[in-house]
């Protein structure tokens, strides 16, 4: 099975062709296509042209297309549920997140990633995304003739590089007289993008939290350009 992963950023468009090989995978091809730094150029047209070329390349194949919704378009919260069943968790999300997300919950799609089980509870990273954001993102691909098979979330896709996702979910037993949120070693992963930065917090191989910040390489390049009196394009290098 061949899968084509597409990441549309504000600075470049990344494309990876991956082949599944039993319990492993192989990266067959990777492209990082920078978008024009000319402010007069329309990035939407550039992206559409690149995607149309990609669609033509794989039109006769059975390749699956995998895309990701940017972290800046979603809201996430860490929750603890007193049950383990995924269908119960998904059913509970709109109520649990109603007062904690900056979106109208009636116009959102909810999903959850179970990080681990603690005694008889589920430690969950819950997500909410406005339907309009999802439609707009899918429309970009539809205009190029691409019908994505999977839409994930940027941070969840990145976490797959660090989680043992083929293994069963870890089960942790904590004595009743101890705090469920007791201290344990954590790993912080920063994904510095052009305009946005994602922060992942993992512990014992499980994604616990994800956050997105409206700052990235563009801000760093502007600071370098100002300090050393460089042109912005030179600072990017």
Question: Can you walk me through this structure?
Answer:
The protein has 237 residues and is an alpha/beta fold. It has one domain (2-236): Nucleotidyltransferase, domain 5 (2-Layer Sandwich). It has helices at residues 43-57, 86-97, 131-143, 154-159, 217-228, 232-236, and strands at residues 2-8, 12-21, 24-34, 64-69, 75-81, 108-118, 121-130, 150-153, 171-172, 187-192, 197-203, 206-213. The chain has a five-stranded mixed beta sheet with strand order 3-2-1-4-8. The chain has a four-stranded mixed beta sheet with strand order 5-7-6-9. A three-stranded antiparallel beta sheet has the order 10-11-12. A hairpin with a 2-residue loop joins strand 6 (108-118) and strand 7. It starts with a strand and ends with a helix.
Based on secondary structure, the structural category is alpha/beta
Neighbour order of strands in the largest sheet: 3-2-1-4-8
Q: Estimate the mean pLDDT confidence.
A: 90
Number of domains: 1
How many helical elements? 6
CATH fold node name: Nucleotidyltransferase, domain 5
Radius of gyration, CA atoms, in whole angstroms: 20 Å
The H/E string reads: EEEHEEHEEHEHEEEEHH
> Would you identify the CATH architecture?
2-Layer Sandwich
N/C terminus separation = 37 Å
- The percentage of residues in β strands lies in 35-45%
Coarse morphology? globular
SS elements, strand count: 12
Main pleated-sheet profile: 5 strands, mixed
**Helical residue percent band:** 25-40%
Please report the first level of CATH classification, the CATH class.
Alpha Beta
Quaternary class: single chain
